[in-house]
Amino acid sequence: MNLRRLPGMFCGLLLAACLAPAETKVLENFTLIDGTGNKPLANAGMVVTDGRITYVGAKAGAKAAAGAERIDLTGKFVMPGIINLHGHLGNTLGLVQDPKNFTRQNLGDQLKTYAKYGVTGVMSMGSDTDLVFEVRAAQRSGRPNTARIYTAGRGFTGAGGYPTKAPGMKGVPYEVTTAGEVDKAIAELAKKKVDLVKIWVDDHLGKEQKIPLNISQAIISAAHRNGLRVGAHIFYLQDAEKLVEAGLNGLAHSVRDKPVSDGLILAMKKRGAWQQAATLTREVSTFVYAKPHPFLDDAFFTKSIDAKTLATLKSAEYIKKAAADPDLPLYPGFLAMAQKNLKKLVESGVKVGFGTDTGPPARFSGYFEQWEMELMVESGLTPMQVITIATHNSADFLGVLKDLGTLEKGKWADLVVLGKNPLDNIRNTRSIETVWVAGNKAN
After folding, report:
1. Among residues 266, 225, 218, 258, which one has the least CA distance to residue 239?
2. Cβ distance 88 to 352 under 8 Å?
3. Quick one: three-class SS letters along the chain?
4. Are the C-beta atoms of 268 and 331 separated by less than 8 Å?
């Protein structure tokens, strides 16, 4: 090779890259539900260039250079991709949870499943291995075509605390007992640039050890010193009140033991704390398998479930085991309380995000996000409120609203094309025809 030619060759390659034609797609003739809560726009158009929205509005304004791909969406409805603020990636295969399952293949398959159901982003809440950071970095260096990863890395509990006794969870969270252990673990998480810090604060109806309040306070303080926000698994109103007072940023589940108090609502509004996720489907999963349920025969569900798992869920043995849970009579009441509290928080002006706690066994990624939206409407919210919470609000909680969460100029084209109007019936969010992530069709 003639070394004298290298500078010129490099400049030529650089110039060619700069002059490469942009990838431009024009979507036309659809009804836009943009995620902001604004009224839908009929006969809309959108121009997507290299994965970002360069125009969205009336079809007449959707101009593009000759040669752009034009996609006719007559009769369709377009909404932003759903962002799940509470999931658990990678650890479950079939109905078995184990960190050994956290492989690149399993993680990738789950991200594809989420996207298949219109979920274009997922916050994995505290049960990840370091592989998650590698996959997240690869996504963020380009344009993904599966659900985007956000991660809390490893969450926190106390020594032997909940949920370390759950199958496959021993050794997953940090088990901390001192401020020094907290500081060390938070420093590790900060170095890895986690998107959130997770604490489990629960005693599983008195059956397990709950992390002490002073340790939770130390975690919140250490996280904030490192510029990190904190979300907590909670069950009891009292814990929610104390943690919000300590500076907690997000309640990762609903309060389920009693109605939310006016004091909690005032504190959340004053401090900017979020109801990060209501996780209504998490409550459904505690009792729905105790007898045969129609969703197990729903083609929208079964398309992503392997035959062995489905057969197990339908088996007499599995149903009998679920029905034998001594706390089974309590579970429907916890769901009802969560729904009541969700409605009150929304009506009170507390910031509310969207999440499901999918990923662990029998809490099925993708399908449960769709079911969650239906349960939110059953709680008294409108379809427009639910869609806005699941898109705009979730992006806002993550601090990524400048790039995601709504379909506006300058943002990534993370969107779902629907065959039916979800504002008429929230179940129409299931009429998915295509899903895009960063302007790429998800696969």
Report:
1. 258
2. no
3. CCHHHHHHHHHHHHHHHHHCCCCEEEEEEEEECCCCCCCCEEEEEEEEECCEEEEEEEHHHCCCCCCCEEEECCCCEEEECEEEEEECCCCEECCEECHHHCCHHHHHHHHHHHHHCCEEEEEECCECCCHHHHHHHHHHCCCCCCCEEEECCECEECCCECCCCCCCCCCCCEECCCHHHHHHHHHHHHHCCCCCEEEECCCCCCCCECCCHHHHHHHHHHHHHCCCCEEEECCCHHHHHHHHHCCCCEECCCCCCCCCCHHHHHHHHHHCCEECCCCHHHHHHCCHHHCCCHHHHCHHHHCCCCHHHHHHHHCHHHHHHHHCCCCHHHHHHHHHHHHHHHHHHHHHCCEECCCCCECCCCCCCCHHHHHHHHHHHHCCCCHHHHHHHHHHHHHHHHCCCCCCCCCCCCCECCEEEECCCCCCCHHHHHCEEEEEECCEECC
4. no
- Cα–Cα distance, 90 to 198 (Å, whole number): 17
Q: Does domain 82-408 have CATH number 3.20.20.140?
A: yes
Radius of gyration from C-alpha coordinates of the chain:
23
Q: What is the mean pLDDT of each run of 10 residues along the chain (443 residues)?
A: 45 45 92 98 98 97 91 98 98 96 97 98 98 98 97 98 96 97 98 98 97 98 98 98 98 98 98 98 98 96 96 98 98 98 98 98 98 98 98 98 98 98 98 98 89
pTM, two decimals, is 0.94
Measure the CA–CA gap between 102 and 99, rounded to whole angstroms: 5
Euclidean distance between CA atoms 280 and 333, whole angstroms: 12
CB atoms near residue 295 (< 10 Å): 16
Count CB-CB contacts under 10 A for residue 361.
17
CA distance 84 to 366: 9
46: nearest Cα among 413, 432, 421: 413
| Cis amide linkage into residue 329, ω under 30° from 0 | no
